[in-house]
């Protein structure tokens, strides 16, 4: 068993069940990497901001996966997630967001904004989405189409602009 397989034992079934591996090769090609380790899984590490931040802050090449209660899957790629003060945004010219509904769709940010350190959501991508724990609604930014190339309809991510997140996963790419 490879190190990637060992790290994926708790999450591998879910990823296969939701066909992430059907798009995994394409997602990895979009980033230029070929393998990954799971560094955060909300079902294992707890669905809260401090555990998520402890798992991703200071790391490079992070791909996040958001899975909704309606089984939509989308996420973002960050070439780095620096430590930020509250309400700061990381500038990342390599960052992008993606949706896996009806095939892989990748959207590049026009102004290079990426990870945002707000004080409420567990995870926020600048001008794209805010992910809260399952007791609160998560939100797709109503103006996301203004900031991401090729994004015409924000419902491509979760079927609606508000949704319940069932799981948040972060992968460190190699």
Automatic annotation (TrEMBL):
- Chain ranges of the TLDc domain: 26-112
Q: Which Pfam families match?
A: TLD
Query: What is this protein called in UniProt?
Result: TLDc domain-containing protein
Tell me the organism.
Answer: Entamoeba nuttalli
Q: What is the lineage of its organism?
A: Eukaryota, Amoebozoa, Evosea, Archamoebae, Mastigamoebida
């Amino acid at each position: 068993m490879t190190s990637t397989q060992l790290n994926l034992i708790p999450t591998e079934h879910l990823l296969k069940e939701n066909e992430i591996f059907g798009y995994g090769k394409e997602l990895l090609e979009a980033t230029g990497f070929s393998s990954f380790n799971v560094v955060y899984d909300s079902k294992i590490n707890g669905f809260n901001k401090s555990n998520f931040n402890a798992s991703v802050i200071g790391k490079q090449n992070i791909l996040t996966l958001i899975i909704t209660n309606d089984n939509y899957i989308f996420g973002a790629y960050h070439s780095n997630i620096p430590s930020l003060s509250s309400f700061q945004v990381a500038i990342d010219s390599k960052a992008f967001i993606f949706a896996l509904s009806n095939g892989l769709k990748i959207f590049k940010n026009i102004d290079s904004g990426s990870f945002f350190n707000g004080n409420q959501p567990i995870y926020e991508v600048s001008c794209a989405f805010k992910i809260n724990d399952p007791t609160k609604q998560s939100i797709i930014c109503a103006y996301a189409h203004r900031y991401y190339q090729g994004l015409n309809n924000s419902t491509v991510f979760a079927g609606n602009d508000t949704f319940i997140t069932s799981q948040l996963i972060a992968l460190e790419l190699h």
